[in-house]
Design a protein that fits this description.
This protein has 12 helices and 5 strands. The protein has about 300 residues and is mainly α. The strands form 2 sheets. Strands 3-5-4 form a 3-stranded mixed beta sheet. The longest helix has 30 residues, at about 75-100. The protein is globular and about 70 Å long.
Length: about 300
């Protein structure tokens, strides 16, 4: 419910600024996660039959009045939701783990050391975004790899395939994008989101909200690249190049699910690129903190009456 309300507000208020979109989405994620346990501890009367019958706006136990064979519809819905939530969590959590297991150990003779020219580009872009240059780790992968990870210190992880695929303007924009993640401590946000998702693996709505937060983190980093003076077209081109090289078109006779999954990811990438070029400079949200506070208060009030 919190996710639906915030999504409606984002559309009604036409929020374009990535920072404010992120804050509102974090409210939709944090309010239920933090307050629902508090409600159980501080307001135990909410779990009683009297509150469900007279005070609750939405009581899930009423769904069990509808029977499907010997089981209640509410119980079946919970089981289905738990299965969907578990699948969504594993779909996002397992691929990075498997990718790490497939990577070869770095060569001891320095064959995987970052090229000096690339190190110079990273230092130049770090000065441009006013951040400390991160450590660079080149991984032996035949696929394009380009991301920032870690907390202290943060590492910029790349592969030779990524460096070879990008033209100089694309490479500078891609470096700036990852350094924007470093500036905003987005890797730490990623770890926190994974922890929250793991603790709530059974909740598909929470996974959807968490993935929306990740999308806003990427959107904020895109905005920072443009504000640093890089052409939006260069970053959009880099995003497309890395996706095309990292997700080759499957054979027409290949598995249908594989082709559908690749097409879904491609649609998301195309939408992000179009949004980046069309709205390179987003207007800030007027009275932003007031709207965030009202949203949090409204969700808190609404969730109190949902049991």
């Amino acid at each position: 419910m919190a996710t639906i309300v915030v999504e409606a507000l984002l559309r009604a208020w036409r929020v374009a600024d990535p920072a404010w979109r992120l804050r509102l989405r974090l409210v939709s994620l944090a309010v239920p996660v933090a307050l629902v346990p508090l409600f159980f501890a501080l307001a135990p009367w909410r779990t009683g039959a009297a509150f469900a019958a007279s005070g609750a706006l939405f009581a899930s136990e009423r769904w069990n009045l509808l029977r499907v064979g010997a089981a209640g519809a509410g119980d079946l819905l919970l089981v289905a939701a738990a299965g969907l939530g578990s699948w969504l969590f594993l779909r996002d959590a397992l691929p990075p783990v498997l990718e790490r297991l497939r990577q070869e150990p770095p060569a001891e003779d320095g064959a995987w050391a970052a090229p000096h020219a690339f190190q110079a580009r990273v230092e130049q872009q770090a000065r441009r975004l006013a951040v400390e240059p991160p450590a660079i780790r080149v991984v032996p992968s035949r696929w394009p790899v380009f991301f920032a990870e870690g907390r202290r210190p943060v590492e910029l992880v790349v592969s030779a395939a990524a460096l070879d695929a990008l033209a100089p303007p694309e490479l500078d924009a891609a470096i700036a994008h990852e350094l924007a993640h470093v500036r905003y401590a987005d890797p730490a946000w990623g770890y926190a989101l994974i922890a929250v998702r793991a603790a709530n693996f059974f909740n598909p709505a929470l996974h959807w909200a968490a993935r929306a937060v990740v999308d806003e983190l990427e959107r904020r980093a895109d905005q920072a690249v443009v504000e640093a003076g890089h052409p939006a077209e260069a970053l959009a081109s880099a995003i497309g190049t890395l996706f095309d090289r990292g997700h080759p078109e499957p054979a027409a006779a290949g598995p249908l699910l594989e082709r559908l999954a690749r097409r879904a990811r491609q649609v998301g990438v195309e939408r992000r690129r179009a949004r980046l070029v069309a709205a390179a400079h987003a207007a800030p949200l007027s009275h932003g903190w007031l709207r965030v506070a009202l949203t949090a208060f409204g969700l808190t009030t609404m969730l109190y009456f949902v049991v």
